[in-house]
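Dear colleagues,

I hope this message finds you well. In preparation for our joint manuscript, I am sending the Peptidyl-prolyl cis-trans isomerase (Marinomonas profundi) sequence together with its predicted structure, so that both groups work from identical material. I would be grateful if you could confirm receipt.
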Amino acid sequence: MNVITAESRVTLHFELSLEDGQIVDSNFSQTPASFVFGDGSLLPDFEAALLGMSTGQEASYLMSPEKAFGVHNESNIQRMPRSQFSMDLEEGMVVSFADMSKNELPGVIAEIGEKEVLVDFNHPLAGRTLTFRVQIIAIEETS
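The corresponding structure tokens are as follows:
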């Protein structure tokens, strides 16, 4: 029987949903996704949940914030001078910033004041418990 190992290329349908059942992302009605185990496409704990699954198998996993996108971290919320922004801002808008290494860092505009803007650099799903539902379509060995 073909099962998922650390040397597998996996083709699957997946769905991420919040605790209230709201679907965040799903490809069940689309073409299945493929990834090579360990290529960074999936978070490590999401990959680990797939180990040992076989073609055709379906499962759901409850992923705590620590295993998903991390806990919400107050130190990732920054106040910035409003004068630093040259565009029209709206709450909920995602703005791209550069970190000290010049890497792109998305931030969500959380609050707009007269002099300051509150920007949340946490992942939008940080602090959320997610249900990760999968259906394994195909498994190939890469080695």
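For the figure legend, we might mention the following. The chain has two domains: 8-69+125-141, 74-120. Residues 8-69+125-141 form a domain with the Chitinase A; domain 3 fold (CATH 3.10.50.40).

With kind regards,
E.M.
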